[in-house]
Amino acid sequence: WIGGASGNWTDAANWSRNIKPQTSHTIKFESDATVAMTEAVQDYEKLVLDNASVTIARSTGGDKFHLGAIEGTGRLTIDRMGLGQINGRTLEIPATVEMKMKNNSWFGDFEYGGIVNVRGNVAVSEELQLWKSVAIYGNISGTGSIVMKNGGGTYGFYGDNRDFHGTIEKNFNTGLTIGSANAAGTNIAWRVGGDMTLDVSEGVVQFGSLELWQNAWCVMYFPDGATTTLEVGNLNTDFAFNNGYFLWGNGSNRQNIDITIRKVGTGTLTSYLYNYRNMEIEGGKVVLNNPSGFDGNSFKNLNKVSVGRGAVLACNIDTGSDGMTIDSLEFKDGSYY
Questions:
Q1: Rounded to the nearest 5°, which phi and psi values hold at 333?
Q2: Other C-beta atoms within 10 Å of 186: how many?
Q3: Roughly how many angstroms between the first and final C-alpha of the chain, as a whole number?
Q4: pTM (whole model) above 0.85
Q5: pLDDT, tens digit, 9 for 90 and up, residues 7-56
Q6: Could you tell me if 1 and 28 are in contact, meaning their C-beta atoms sit under 8 angstroms apart?
Q7: Among 221, 216, 227, 107, CA closest to 156
């Protein structure tokens, strides 16, 4: 790049060989630049940052670009663009490249295979969309939103993300894996300082491990007719700040929700919301809370709760609450109330 502090990607005069980059080329930035991308879709073999801070910004005609590799040191900011991988290849973004996503930018590619592995940190200014399979090993920060767009993907968040104070959501109706696919694994799936919200309709939602920090709430929303399995390996909460609440529920008076709690390791799952058709607890400890003064909603009106061997069910009824109703309660061998 010889185009100075700003310029157009497709302008041949901005490149040292006086041609716009082609598929087989290595693209190198040796100085800071903001580059307007006007190509709809293009594959590039390699992007190299030589201690440069580079912004790729969508312009008329621009959409997304695919890379075979990113190397070097510096910062890469994606503005209203998609950054994906060449078909079938894994795109490794090294820890020396700090990623900043803003204005509805996204990782991955719905059409293409492979995975995007981000080894460094990611700052989310507005919205970061994740398509297919993306793993972020660095720390996530910012106040924007992260939206997982495709149910065929596996999304991993392995950093210390307590400085992220935005929202997390998924925008599909199939299962979701966050972090380790094995819920009994030891990988940190999500360590969150902000609030995490998942909209889940069906399939399996798996957490290898979940840590909640400093006023963090993990809320799972189940719409009418949902049939969902929640798997949690370990739940660690920071109660020193009176924090670490894990909620699930539909937040309304719907009656047609089935939920299975499976493979819950250490820690306790606490629920404040209400109205399920069936809840089956296959392992770990689950607390049903019915507090007074919790937004006027309490946990009540369950059709059937089944407690599996080795599982623990606890109920917490606050003074002044309107009580809890469980139509049918089954304890299997080895479980207790």
A1: -55, 125
A2: 11
A3: 68
A4: no
A5: 999 999 999 999 999 888 999 999 999 999 988 878 899 999 999 999 99
A6: yes
A7: 107
